[in-house]
Amino acid sequence: MKGVIAINNIAFFLIPKKEVVYLPLNCTMRQAIERMEYHGYSAIPLVDGNGKYAGTLTEGDLLWKMKNTPGLTFADTEKIPLTEIPRRTQNEPVRIDATIESLLNLAVTQNFVPVVDDHGTFIGIVRRREIILYFAQQAARMKSSQAK
Questions:
Q1: Rounded distance, CA 3 to CA 134, Å?
Q2: Most buried by CB count within 10 Å: which residue of 36, 71, 129, 139?
Q3: Domains in the chain, please, with CATH?
Q4: pLDDT band at residue 3 using 50, 70 and 90 as cut-offs
Q5: What confidence tens digit (pLDDT) does each residue in 107-139 have?
Q6: Furthest-apart CA pair in the chain: how many Å?
Q7: In the beta sheet, which residues pair with residue 45?
Q8: Which has the closest alpha carbon to 24: 74, 110, 82, 67?
Q9: How far is 6 from 96, CA to CA, in rounded Å?
């Protein structure tokens, strides 16, 4: 199709780990709350001590932990490791060599898709925003080329 740029590699959308706010799995609940508040995020990737993707922590996970822990104060959150916070949803990662279709399937239900290498090491994320912008630009290009 004239005017359409086909992207076959998800690396085009990748925000590398060095530019991503993430948390080590050995952080505390308080550290997570403060980091998420500071950056204005409602979800943040977790990485274990070996650099592997270990899940995504959401505001909802933190709220449910507070609700289900009678007497928990904000000061107490510095004693609760992230490993003790149940995660209600699991953001599935994709490998860097994943297809655009598999990325799109996950982006339907995830604000971002974690990306890992062949060994499961966290290398970055793909945000839903960039995917939507890309396809919106492609639609505009198609419309423009059809109008000519």
A1: 13
A2: 36
A3: 10-147 (3.10.580.10)
A4: very low
A5: 889 989 999 999 999 999 999 888 888 888 888
A6: 67
A7: 56
A8: 82
A9: 17
